[in-house]
Design brief:
Layout (H helix, E strand, L loop, with lengths): L6 E3 L2 E3 L6 E6 L2 E10 L3 H20 L2 H17 L1 H12 L3 H21 L7 E2 L6 E9 L2 E5 L7 H13 L2 E5 L5 H13 L7 E3 L4 H10 L5 E5 L2 H14 L2 E5 L4 E5 L5 H13 L9 E7 H16 L19 H17 L2 E4 L18 E4 L6 H4 L6 E7 L2 H8 L7 E5 L3 H10 L4 E4 L34 E9 L12
Parallel strand pairs: 7-8, 7-10, 8-9, 10-11, 12-13, 12-17, 13-16, 15-16, 17-18
Antiparallel strand pairs: 1-2, 3-4, 5-6, 6-19, 14-15
The structure holds nicotinamide-adenine-dinucleotide.
Nicotinamide-adenine-dinucleotide binds next to α7 and α8.
């Protein structure tokens, strides 16, 4: 029997009121059940929001460094448990053990980074135009927040939300993805062990259409931090707009890597293979378009195919495996459908394009690494996020066109250019409509001290991580203290 886990509400581990449960299974081996989890509904969300509301006043009045110290302790706990968490992550969502370790490390790094922010939490001082009047800005928490996360970074993405919410003085209800409830539970356990007071962070497991919707709709929730698909993000942003709730959106993308004739092809090929196929292409920053200059195209393509053909596909716990399974059956079908769309649209399938079956593959969701050639910018496979191990080459013969193609989707998260031409480097930096731009580096692999987020339909202008992280969870308050002993009027009014 699989172990039964619970929600965490008001400092207690509790079952869903309905008593219903759902299972988390290993995408490399569907027979392995990692646990069963509460299938929560609106009543559980309501209890969690109530607990967060009850905890809010004391928490917002707790000194910021004291709030942040919990993050330091939680980071040390994750550091101690890193290997165990990484292994469970690979079993719960599939990616290779190396990448799972990176995910946990990113969580640890950001907990430490945000712990430091607790001793900064800077505001500004400004001059007043009047005598004996002092002006400054301070941050104010936005209140109870809902944190909704995807499954592809089960520790790092929740930490990007939970840590700044804690430092900001918000209390929160965290609704993790239904595909990674175990890792979410272990993360929340670490924060409990770190001494976080009851109600400051609450965990409600379940599905988007029930627990997720109830959280977004709840009147007690003042802000929603969402990472996931454009489709769901749009629905949430519309609701938040009507209710005048703060919302931050980190959504899909169609990232691009440009290869110019002077590129170091060894590096460009390796970056393309890593960017397209790490986490089986299920990163929001995955390299799903390769815009390659005609002068480099033949050699680049040959070398990329050679590199991809050497990739071992299998269970992420096997250290030799480079390409692990995709998250679930539904996602596997979606990726396979996109491959068919690509063929019908006239792209040339160079390698892959199929589900892997047979020995070692029968119980998992495995798709061969897939590369298309002759992809054109208007094709659906060049425009829509596939979120699987599929990439395609688009040809170009000059930088203006390469940049135009790069910008030609509705998304704008991560873009890269491989070149040593200084003019092309700075033109790319200036003209690419992406929140993250790399020069001679892969599109994946963001570092926590840099702001993370995208332009256009990838988001709504917010950034996670980096110095901007606190903006998601705080309001700016302008404060003026008049010690003149008079009622002074600004703008020169007598
Ligand atoms: P998803 O949108 O299906 O689900 C994300 C989360 O939202 C889950 O917890 C889900 O239960 C919940 N949810 C679903 N419907 C909901 C609703 N109507 N109301 C409230 N909550 C709801 O996305 P996913 O499949 O988990 O993740 C993959 C997507 O996430 C991809 O599009 C990927 O690009 C994106 N992503 C973006 C970033 C980024 O920072 N830009 C990072 C990682 C993933």
């Amino acid at each position: 029997m699989a172990e039964e886990y619970r929600n965490y509400i008001g400092g207690k581990w509790v079952a869903a009121e309905s008593g219903e449960m759902f299972e988390s299974r290993n995408p490399a081996n569907r027979d392995e059940v990692l646990g069963s989890f509460p299938h929560s509904g609106p009543e559980d969300v309501d209890a969690a929001v109530q607990a967060a509301e009850d905890a809010y006043r004391d928490w917002m009045l707790t000194p910021v460094p004291e709030r942040a110290d919990h993050l330091m302790r939680a980071g040390l706990i994750l550091e101690r448990r890193k290997e165990e968490l990484a292994e469970l992550m690979t079993r719960e969502m599939g990616k290779t053990l190396k990448e799972s370790r990176g995910d946990v490390q990113e969580g640890i790094d950001f907990l430490f980074y945000m712990a430091g922010e607790g001793r900064r939490f800077f505001g500004h001082t400004m001059p007043s135009e009047l005598k004996n009047k002092f002006s400054m800005t301070v941050r104010h928490p936005i209140g109870v927040v809902g944190l909704i996360a995807p499954w592809n970074f089960p520790i790092a993405i929740p930490v990007w939300k939970i840590a700044p919410a804690i430092v900001a003085g918000c209390t929160s209800v965290f609704k993790p993805a239904q595909d990674t409830p175990l890792l979410a539970t272990l993360l929340v356990q670490s924060l409990e062990e770190a001494g976080l007071p009851a109600g400051v962070l609450n965990l409600v497991h379940g599905f988007g259409r029930e627990a997720g919707v109830a959280l977004v709709d709840h009147e007690g929730v003042r802000g929603v931090s969402f990472t996931g698909s454009l489709e769901v993000g749009r629905q949430i942003a519309e609701k938040c707009g009507r209710a005048m709730k703060r919302c931050s959106m980190e959504l899909g993308s169609k990232n691009v890597l440009i290869v110019m004739p002077d590129a170091d092809l060894d590096l460009a090929v390796e970056a393309s293979a890593w960017g397209a196929f790490a986490t089986s292409g299920q990163r929001c920053t995955a390299t799903s378009r390769l815009v390659v200059h005609d002068a480099a195209r033949k050699e680049f393509t040959e070398r990329l195919l050679e590199r991809v053909s050497g990739m071992k596909v299998g269970n992420g716990l096997d250290p030799e495996v480079e390409l692990a399974p995709v998250i679930n059956e539904q996602q596997k079908q979606r990726v396979l459908e996109y491959i068919e769309v690509g063929k019908k649209e006239g792209a040339t399938l160079l390698t892959g394009g199929e589900e892997l079956t047979g020995d070692g593959y029968d119980k998992g969701n495995f798709i061969a690494p897939t590369v298309f050639d002759d992809m054109t910018p208007d094709m659906r496979i060049a425009q829509e996020e596939i979120f699987g191990p599929v990439t395609g080459i688009i040809r170009t013969d000059e930088i203006d066109e390469a940049l135009r193609i790069a910008n030609s989707t509705q998304y704008g998260l991560s873009a890269s250019i491989y070149t040593h031409d200084i003019t092309n480097v700075f033109r790319a930096i200036q003209e690419l409509e992406f929140g993250i731009v790399y020069v001679n580096a892969p599109t994946i692999g963001a570092e926590i001290q840099l702001p993370f987020g995208g332009m256009k339909s990838t988001g709504n202008g917010h950034r996670e991580a980096g110095p901007q992280a606190l903006d998601e969870f705080t309001e700016w308050k302008a404060v003026s203290v008049d010690f003149s002993g008079k009622v002074q009027k600004a703008q020169g009014i007598d």
